[in-house]
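Subgroup meeting minutes
Present: P.N., E.W., G.H.
Scribe: E.W.

1. P.N. recapped why we're keeping a running log of single-chain structure predictions: easier to compare across weeks, and new members can see raw inputs and outputs side by side.
2. G.H. added today's entry (407 aa).
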Amino acid sequence: MDYDVVVVGAGPAGCLAAKYAAKNGAKTLIIEEHASIGSPVQCAGLLSTKAIDACEVSFDKGFHPISGAFVYAPDGRRICISGGEIKAYVVDRRLFDRTLAENALRSGAEILMRTRACGIATRGNRRILHVTIEGEPDVIEADVVIGADGIQSSIARWTGLGTSENVLCGAQVNTVYDFDCCDCVEIFPGSCAPGFFAWAIPYHESARIGLAVRPTVTPGPKSRSISQSQPGSACWHLKWLLSEHRVVARKCRSGMTGLVVGGIPIGVLQRTAADSVLIAGDAAGQVKPTSGGGVYPGAVCAKIAGRVAADAVREGDTSARRLSEYDRLWRAEIGRELAIGKRINEWVARLGDSGLNRLIKVLDDDELLDLITRYGDMDYPSVVLRKLLMNTKSVGALLKLAPICLR
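Output recorded in log:
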């Protein structure tokens, strides 16, 4: 098997990279280790309108609209951020990912399921992928390999590009939940999810309740009623959240299905291009550190990767120097935003419950909430941050919180 471009991984980033490589004239193959697209699910499925547009997917009646959020302080105080208009949609990621795969096929890409990459080698200026197809060993040759194989990317490791600096551990279940507003998500930062936050996301008649935690952070709330077999793990915190959290436990009904576990990379790779190799999506750490969402930045970067790969093949130069155009272009597009998001993530993680209580108390102000509502953007948090830093009320409060972060 001989291709211009081989994409490893059929998630959103992989499918979009393949679509753009094929659209730009490259003979393109996607390989996917699982038996079906979109499985197993490792995402809450909350996508901004920008993310859906970037994925070039048409609106579907199955999408659940989201227009705002309730953010709860650890002490129970909450603020409402809602502008009335739709900001995001909750989707079925299985169906969404399959649509992206179909779009890639329509653009001329091919796909092989149950195909696992087992190793990568070099022959001249080409890459040799050693794979198993339904358990049988085989070899695929390519001018360029695009690694879109997720947070534990083998392609990135094998080619010396490394892995993301930090990885959050996440867990989520489907259940029934008494939402105050069916088009608003609920967010719970603090010790219930050390280093990140917990969430309750409505999806038609059900809810997705989950959280992510930073493994290096000291475990948060403790209870004798919670199993101590893995204290501090994401599943341990999720069990506490569902059974004892002051808000979630009260609003969550008994019975749950569909446990989902996974990781969220925080921090992009220093390099995302090597000789005949590009890395995109979660594999490159192209994830929003403020929300953990990877579909929008992954889509932006993957489309660049597909185009750059196809152009390099056409020009007959797939060296790291030529492919570094991809690295330069995607960083120019969203690199600064991801860097700012990482600083915000680290700052909030250091606040602790008392600092978060004080922060949300300060933000519980009509003027500041109006500012956040007007300028808040799931994909570009630097916009509202800049506005807050220009506001005397919020600047004074943030300066008072600074000593907490330095402890």
